[in-house]
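Hey, resending since the last one bounced:
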Amino acid sequence: MVKIMQRNLHLGYGYTALAYFGITSLWVIFLQQRGLSLVQIGLCESIFHLTSLLSEVPSGMLADRFGYKIVLMGGRVAAIVHAIIMLMATNFWWFALGFVLQAWAYNLQSGTIEALLYDSLAENHATERFPVVTKNMNMIIEIATPVGVLLAGGLIHGHLNVTYLLYALSAGLAIGCILQLHEPFRDQTTPATDAQSLIAIS
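The C-alpha cells again:
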C-alpha cells in the first residue's frame, strides 16, 4: 500500500504540472487576434466566472457520487473540447461556449486531486504528510504556470493557436496520469441518495 501511495503522489504531481500549465494565459490577445472586441472579451471572462461560481458545489457532488478519477477525467475532457472550440470558433457565441467548458474544466479539478491524494495518505495513516504534499503541489503550480506563459510569449506573433494545441496535448497527458491513479477507499457512512438535496450533500 505504501508503494501505491507513493505512486499516487508522483502521478498527482505530474497531473498538477500538466493541468496548471499556463500555456493559454495570453487568451485575451488570442481573442483579439481572432477578431473579438474588448467588450466581447470581457463578456467571455464574465461567463467563465459566473459558470465557475454556479458549478463549484455541483462539481463537488459529482466527486462524491462518481469518484475522483471520473471527475478529474471529465475536467480534462472539458479542457480538450474547450481548446478545440477556441481553435475552430468563428463567432462570439462559440467562444462563449468555450469559456463555459473552461470553467467546468476548472471546477472539476478544483480540490479534487487534493482530496484524492489526502485519501491516499489516509489509507496509509500518513495524513500528517499532507501539508508537505500541498506545499509540493503549490510549488509545481508556481513553476508550471509561468513556464507556460513564457512559452506562449514566444508564440504571440501569429502563432497563439499553437498554445491551444499544446493545451489539449497537456490535457491528454493529464488523462494518462489519471488512468494510472489508484482510487482510494472512502468510508462514506452516509452515502448520497437521489432523494438528498443539494444542501444535504454539500
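The chain has nine helices and no strands.

Sorry for the duplicate.
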